[in-house]
Design goal:
about 260 residues; alpha+beta; disordered N terminus
Length: about 260
């Protein structure tokens, strides 16, 4: 779950998708459409959204957004004249949109009222470092669907077959097969346990003698190199640590609310 204090405001006519603060407020009226006022606060929201997306603030941009809001108000009124606001599907979509906005507002409120201390961040950082271990591995693999396929590949490799060529021809891992099965430098902790266990037992240049099964299929693994892991500086990952902690806290809070909710 990604925490954010923004919600999306559709600007369909301009083709924009903007993210705007929940608490933006200002008085005044932008325009009136058939007697219905468009508040200045609505324009302020979409301007902030557009600038947050990298659009330069200018009189032209503000006028374009104003015209867009006017067009949307006209279309909204026409939809209501047709009674579309009472269409069951539209009512459901409106309810879901309102619910999503309230949930994101609740998340934002949770973040504001649950600041993460520096000691928590440091503890999280040390925990992640210990999980990652002190080594990084440069590995290749060939992923296939059956154990027999993996055994056949192992036999071909023992006869002198090219690991890279076989990976390109046989692997079902589309992300690595084009690079001869290369997975790049990673700690063992990023892999599922059976894969990590097999990888860490290999010596540099060795290939697994038996197929390794994971939820993804059957793997033939080769270890190309090993190096000492150098963790990123604390300040570089501090924000990420904060997100991890907040995610856990929010998930725990949600679980507590679910336990106390009366669901029938």
């Amino acid at each position: 779950m990604r925490f954010t204090k923004f919600f999306y405001v559709p600007l369909a006519v301009l083709g924009l998708t903007c993210v705007t603060p929940l608490n933006a407020q200002s008085g005044g009226t932008v325009a009136k459409v058939n007697g219905v006022a468009i508040p200045q606060s609505r324009l302020d929201l979409v301007i902030k959204a557009a600038t947050a997306q990298g659009q330069p603030d200018s009189a032209e941009m503000r006028n374009a957004l104003r015209e867009n809001l006017i067009t949307e108000e006209i279309l909204t009124q026409e939809a209501m004249k047709k009674g579309l606001d009472r269409n069951p599907d539209v009512v459901t979509q409106t309810d879901l949109a309102r619910q999503g906005i309230l949930i994101r507002a609740y998340q934002a409120d949770f973040m504001r009222n649950n600041p993460v201390s520096d000691s928590e961040l440091r503890k999280e950082y040390e925990s992640v470092k210990s999980q990652m271990g002190d080594k990084e591995y440069k590995a290749r693999h060939i992923l296939v669907e059956t154990e027999q396929e993996a055994k056949d590949l192992t036999a071909s490799l023992k006869k002198g077959g090219s690991f890279e060529k076989l990976a390109g021809e046989r692997s079902i891992d589309t992300g690595s097969k084009g690079n001869g099965g290369e997975l790049g430098w990673s700690s063992a902790a990023v892999y599922v346990k059976p894969f990590a266990d097999a990888l860490t037992k290999l010596k540099k240049g060795e290939t697994t003698g038996q197929p390794v099964q994971t939820p993804f299929g059957w793997h033939v693994i080769r270890l190309d190199d090993v190096r000492t892991a150098v963790p990123p500086p604390f300040d570089e990952v501090k924000q990420n640590m904060q997100q991890r902690i907040l995610q856990r806290k929010f998930a725990a809070m949600v679980e507590s609310l679910r336990k106390n909710a009366k669901v029938e």
